Amino acid sequence: MIPKQMIAHLPTPVEWMPRLSAALGGPKLLVKRDDQTGLAMGGNKTRKLEYILADAQAQGAKTLVTIGAVQSNHCRQTAALAARFGLDCILILYGDKPETMTGNLLLDALFGAEIHWTTREQRDETFNRVFNHAWQEGRRPYAIPLGASNALGAVAYAEAFSEMINQGVNPDWIIFASSSAGTQAGMVLGARRTNFRGKILGISVDLPRDELAMKVADLATAGAERYGEKYVFNPQDILVNDHYIGAGYAVLGENETRAIQFFAKYEGLLVDPVYTGRAAGAMIDLIEKQFFKPDETVLFWHTGGTPALFAQKYMDSFQEIVKPKL
Ligand SMILES: *Cc1c(COP(=O)(O)O)cnc(C)c1O
To answer: Does the pLDDT at position 320 exceed 90?
Structure first.
């Protein structure tokens, strides 16, 4: 057994989406509700942080140090985790520093995180500098990588995969947003460990297909080592679709806007502008292109992210759409 701190609300429910399925004339649709994992509004990082926190505690950490984009869900959840366990939290955020604190960023501040700003280009350098400084000051920092995607993050999603199988859920396809590769790595590892026969399709949020597939394969292999198992994963066997990156990371386009509206209107469900909206939009588009067979079951693995809906830039974009309702 690989140690973890029990934090998440598990198992997360699996629900049908009959109205969305009917509206699209598509296959049977399921949703795995990892937006309901708990820890400051939930999301996929809760599961990963359960294992990472156990490791940090074993090493005597007093400060969690991590990195992400301005509206990082991972940073928000790490900040909440630190608050809950009486640790300090240092966040290195890259991107344009906004004028007002909204969405995830507002929550980071409420959880008492110490924030350092940098650019995407200088993020590693800044991280190392801030981390070393914290070390010299005797704050016992513990580094958590981007998206909590390391071997332990992959283990967390291998376990999540077993959880789904134990729920008696056996879809033909699993679709979700893939970015720093830990979630997808864990799923492919979990699939191997459970002899799953369906397909695991990551929708890339930012990286080109080959680059993401390579990272997924490497992390899945590293995750297997944690179990003391010798599986080797090849990038050619990893399914990644990079056709939905649009204008780039965190840029809200028509694909995401439509997905957010469809999920809201037909199922009363919220998907986010950066990750799950992009992956849900891809799923909707693939259904419309008849990519799936009518008798197949497609599971949308909801990875969270909904606080970003309330980031100023996304709220502004949505005003045009909701205005007629005023
Ligand atoms: C981090 C994140 C992802 C991507 O998970 P990775 O393990 O980084 O690939 C997907 N959705 C949401 C909401 C996230 O916060």
So the answer is: no
